[in-house]
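#onboarding

Welcome to the new folks! Below is a worked example of what a typical request in this channel looks like: someone posts a single protein sequence, and someone else replies with the predicted structure as tokens. Don't worry about understanding the tokens yet, we'll cover that in week two.

Example request:
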Amino acid sequence: MERVAALDEPLKKILGGTTAKVLAEHLGLETVGDLLHHYPRRYAERGELTRLSDLPLDEHVTVVAQVADARVLTFNHGRGQRLEVTLTDGSGRLQLVFFGKGIHKPHKDLLPGRRAMFAGKVSVFNRKLQLAHPEYELLDRDADNDAVDAFANQLMPIYPACQQMASWKIAKAVDAVLPSAQDAVDPLPPGLREGRALIPLTEALLKIHRPGTKADIADARARLKWDEAFVLQVALARRRFADSQLPAVPRRLTPGGILDAFDARLPFTLTEGQTKVSREIFDDLATEHPMHRLLQGEVGSGKAQPLDALVLTPRGFRPMGEMAPGTEVVVPSGGTALVDGVFPQGEREVWRLVLSDGSTVECDDEHLWIVSSRATGERVLTTRALRADLLDDDGRPRWSIAPATPVDLDDGGPRPLDAYELGRTVGAGGAAPAGRAVPDAYRNAPVKDRRALLAGLLDAGGEPLGADGAARVFRAAPAPLAADLAWLARSLGGTARSAPAAGGGHDVTVAVPEEGVGGDAFRRTVLAVEHVGRRPVQCISVAHPSHAYVTDHFTVTHNTMVALRAMLGVVDSGGQAAMLAPTEVLAQQHHRSVTEMMGDLAEGGMLGGAEQGTKVVLLTGSMGAAARRQALLDLVTGEAGVVIGTHALIEDVVQFHDLGLVVVDEQHRFGVEQRDALRSKGKQPPHLLVMTATPIPRTVAMTVFGDLETSVLDQLPAGRSPIASHVVPAKDKPHFLARAWERVREEVAAGHQAYVVCPRIGDDEEAPAPKGKKAKDPAAQPSSPEDLAEKRPPLAVLDIAEQLGKGPLAGLRVAVLHGRMAPDDKDDVMRRFAAGELDVLVATTVIEVGVNVPNATVMVIMDADRFGVSQLHQLRGRVGRGAAPGLCLLVSEMPEASPARARLAAVAATLDGFELSRIDLEQRREGDVLGQAQSGVRSSLRMLAVIDDEEVITAAREEATALVAADPELTGCPELRTALSALLDDERESYLDKG
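Example response:
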């Protein structure tokens, strides 16, 4: 064990307390082993020797030259000093600059006439090339060329560093511990290492930190990736093996039971993908070992709204087309949740629900609505079911839509005026600031401000309607004011009906529930469902058990497909199913959602319950004693086939009659301990289904969910023309950008139209000056193309439109569109573009709102590196909507080797949602991807790139599976056991905790 001790030695013993403290606090490095596994993130090459006349800007160079002169200058009124050294090599001159305390040694060394090698990055100051603080090595007059070459071509490791500890200081610390690499325990079995031609671990550690050649780095990386992949996959393989040895009760499908009854009343047909995945699940359930399956993309499959439908967020409504994973949206109960999946559905037939107050909502036929009728109470129905069963026998509308809970909003804009007084001013005919009826900042305001604003409007221009005066009518309101009155009323849980007035304008009848009173009396009925036509649509999944959000005109929509069928299949076979939720509120909402979808099938054994039904019970920690006692009794007797609950389900007191299936939402991962505790509730271990709505790349699934089999429900866009995407490197190859504008002209000549998208508007919203703009210190100047590109303000619509109109697109009909245009102007531009009266629309991302022009075939996105992956994907979806193929050109000034360009190239390469999720993940650190799922893992992956190293992960998985099958206890691999215990929590050596 002495060998392990050498790597476990605290760094303070070797490096001293101060350095060790910085490494521990800022980089999490505490032992010799930690520092040895803190690998360089890249290597700086001093580069080939360069003539001074050929120096390239912004690149690391190495030069051999003679000092022509050196002088010390003062600045900042004598408080600062700098050393300027001029070099010459016969071909040109170069200036070196050193500042502050760093001038003393070079001032002594670099005397006129001395010859030396210098390495650094070339920058420009005062229109002269310079190297700031270069490394240098003095040469003897008769220095041989070998020494020069050795210095010039050396690979310098650049470590992940922090402000308190620069990379070169970390390199010195690594030098101090590098001899301990000899004591590293090699976890790979010798046969595997030799069979895969991998170098020994000790050699890999030496080569990764101090490579002699690029081949050394490649050998070391290959070996260290295998260590990480193999140890992780062995841990997962042991878990899979342990599970496969456990017995489970087979749960075979039973015809004529609750599942068949449930399927018979489903208001929509299961898609081919849903049927296939259900078959996989039921096949697993029928085996004698526990199912462990991950179901991807289950939520949100198939229910969609047009891209210009609106979704309520805490800052007001945003278009469906702008939704992206991570967008915060408002749920009907008034809380907020994140969008955790976006699923483009291509073009579909779209229908319009017309509600009793004149408001309308558009969606596809599969869309789910929470509706009520006098006869049935609350149900969840599709648009198709509503169409087929719209009216009662007496001809009156049957269904009403659930109201949304009023919520506080804040669009971030200033609200200098009292809301009530502003309402009175506007209601009396005065103009509001910003040239519209009510400024957005007041519309998207907290509930109390919206209530005060509406009161002011109605007090100034409204009159009571009816004897009780509960409703008020505002006569002859101009169109913008009528729209705002309706908006405010609906946002407060009320209703608003607008009718044309005799003398022009609109009579708006408004009714709003009193503060704190439920709005059930204000439910709107569904008057009609009208056909709109084919339009591009998408659906979103909301990370909330209700999976509901608030759409146009504050209408609640339900967007879920609960994984109930597997649970009901288990109930048919005599077992019970449990669904786990992390909080009581979410458990209650899950319970409500499930009972709604099941109807009387959830009332087994109760008066009015269906014959094949079962009980669906809720179990949480704060239930009253009587209700809790009844729920526990229903579980232990088997009366309840389905239970939905929190961690309370895991308590010792909870006993099941026969627990057959546990369903876990991956948003709320439960750890191995919780799974084990639930296992003990069954006579034999239950089957397990883990669900996620987000597409997970195969590599991540293999690594994070390696102990689960994977099923995928993918809904690829249908009915769309292909879209070709290309990156246009505007700075490196200006002629590519010129060709892009030629392509636009060609498309217009062929009768098509184009979009040009810019990140900024460009009138009065100037970007702040880059930091360091006025600094005299050259170190503060942008020093690389990346810096320069990032410090430049983003390209603006107004500037680009003018340049295009006078230059490459002269003669074409070019117009601009952005968010700060007056609504009428915006509508006019959109109408003209849709009608084909304009050739090119230069716009911000506002084109995601209400613009659907099948004739538009080309899009040029300027400064594409300033947009996120999902936003680029959404923007690109604006073209290729008609019969002609689409073209998307991603213009960037970033250098070819930059991460931003790599991201754009990846976006250009695919239209696939899973692939784009992979690209999105690539932008995060690998440790974040894994650490989120493996709270038991002490050290995140450092060398293995989950996204890029699929071949290594796949091969490691195969090797690990074979090894564990032959030697489950790893008795023949003591070093591997040691590595496992270092990777995982001691008490859970063979388990990964998905906590």
